[in-house]
Amino acid sequence: MEYCIPPSDSYYVKNRKFLLLFILLLAFVPGRTGSRLHAYRLIYREQLYELHHRQLYNYPLDIAENIHWLETALRADFANPLNALARIESDREWDKYRPLFTMHLNLKLTELYLLWATGYYKFDAYFYNYPWKEQNLESLEKSETLLTYALVYWDEARKYAAEAGEFQWLYLEEVQFWEDELYRIQQGELDYRRIINKHLDRLREVRSEFEAMDSSTY
Questions:
Q1: pLDDT tens, residue by residue, 27-80
Q2: What is the C-alpha to C-alpha distance for residues 19 and 31, in angstroms, rounded to an integer?
Q3: What is the model's pLDDT at position 55?
Q4: Residue 173 DSSP one-character state
Q5: Distance of CA 41 to the CA centre of its chain
Q6: From the DSSP assignment, how many helices (H) and strands (E) are in the chain?
Q7: What is the pLDDT of residue 42?
Q8: What contacts 112, CB < 8 A, 6 or more positions away?
Q9: 23 in Cβ contact with 55 (< 8 Å)
Q10: Which residues of 24-62 are buried (b: 16+ CB within 10 A; e: fewer)?
């Protein structure tokens, strides 16, 4: 699967590229010792995930930027087990850690795309919205695209949850939150497909109402 982001506003694209370039430049600025240089190179999934956390803390509303770092993390290799985000002492723990981490990344992307979609979502089509009919239809189209991306990542999250679930007897305490997510998916308590499909059904109803509007209904 190719992990990419949908077309976004030029503001987000330009700022994302600038931030990435800035960080990459920092990666090659010599530190006080040569051994510190490698620590600043963002080449592993764990490093990029932690960068996402800092970005999320500083700019929680910059959804496009947070999505960018998570998708970049998905494309990156895992760090050595010694540098994993959980204690890894056996091959079996390593075999569970990787799909569990990947599940978590896909789940976060599902949530972010769903959140992004709500920014363009229209819950109702009032007759007095007719003067902005085309703008509302464009907004609904953007929302539908983002919801579709959310579904793609949800399916990926479920796939990796099934893979991680093969190691039920193993519990990685350091990533308890991921383990909780896995349990909720397995039990059916967490089902974003149901939520997203509900939004899509309502979106199509609202779109039909907007498309039916004309000067006689205003």
A1: 444 433 333 334 446 689 999 998 887 777 666 668 998 999 999 999 999 999
A2: 20
A3: 74
A4: G
A5: 22
A6: 8, 0
A7: 66
A8: 63, 66, 67, 70
A9: no
A10: eeeeeeeeeeeeeeeeeebebbbbbbebbeebbeeeeeb
d(C-alpha 161, C-alpha 105), whole Å: 11
Check if the beta carbon of residue 185 is closer than 8 Å to that of residue 100. no
The predicted pLDDT at position 139 comes to: 95
Closest CA relative to residue 155, chosen from 196, 119, 207? 196
Vertex 45: Cα angle to 41 and 51 (nearest 5): 65
Q: What is the residue type of 167?
A: F
**Orientation of helix 63-75 relative to helix 10-27, angle to 10°:** 50
C-alpha–C-alpha distance, residues 30 and 203, integer Å: 52
